[in-house]
Specification:
mainly alpha; 11 helices
Length: 235
């Protein structure tokens, strides 16, 4: 049955949606992001990512390509009023690597579940119903955008928060996998600020023809991960 509860009123003191947004992007949110490299483990296996500099290079490329032309653009289309089931289907179609599709829907499913309990809304109930009826897959960026939109988070603020949360989880995973030192991880995150800001600025100038225009090298690495002999991550 649809959740009929209403979201709590915005926090007092002028914080509005900002505390909710911090909760949604906290690394402690149990969506399973710690289990996914989204392809960089293949680069580690091939010796192409092996230290702070090489991981930083990969991360910038991932933000500029995969996140900008896939997740970020999907979020913008949702904020622009695109039909949710259709948008979900387009996102499934352009996520060519199977592991990446599964990662998106696994984390998206957890986010829908958490959001239904913590930040319930009619918009999220509608997406949950589509997923439950098999009319949508339930992708992470769309689940995040639905919750953020229902909380009244402006698009650019929601997008920047989502992108940086993704960058943070990937960096935390790289700290374990390469491995990197904790301070090195913080330097990588600081260097990624410009990449996130550039993605937020660029996505406003993209259209439907740009959706899914991801570097083949990234996609191939994500496909190869499935058959990698030894793996730490699910994707």
């Amino acid at each position: 049955m649809p959740n009929t509860r209403t979201s709590p009123a915005p926090a007092e003191g002028g914080h509005g949606y900002r505390l909710a947004l911090q909760q949604l992007t906290d690394s402690a949110l149990p969506t399973g992001a710690f289990a996914h490299s989204l392809g960089f483990e293949t680069y580690i296996h091939r010796g192409l990512v092996h230290d702070e500099a090489t991981f930083g290079t990969w991360l910038h490329a991932f933000v500029a390509q995969q996140l900008t032309y896939s997740d970020a653009l999907a979020m913008r289309f949702l904020y622009d009023g695109a039909e949710l089931a259709e948008l979900d289907a387009y996102l499934s179609a352009q996520l060519l690597p199977r592991q990446l599709r599964e990662a998106s829907t696994k984390m998206g499913g957890r986010l829908i579940e958490i959001g239904t309990e913590v930040f319930p809304s009619a918009e999220l109930d509608a997406y949950r119903t589509l997923v439950g009826e098999g009319r949508a897959a339930g992708h992470q960026p769309l689940a995040f955008a639905v919750v953020a939109h229902s909380l009244g988070v402006p698009f650019e603020e929601a997008l920047a928060a989502y992108l940086f949360a993704t960058v943070t989880s990937l960096t935390q995973n790289a700290v374990r996998a390469i491995p990197l030192g904790q301070n090195a991880g913080q330097r990588v995150l600081r260097a990624a600020h410009d990449a996130v800001a550039a993605a937020v600025g660029q996505v406003r100038h993209l259209g439907w023809d740009d959706f899914g225009a991801v570097s083949p090298g990234l996609e191939i690495s994500q496909m190869r991960h499935e058959r990698q002999r030894a793996r730490m991550f699910m994707s």
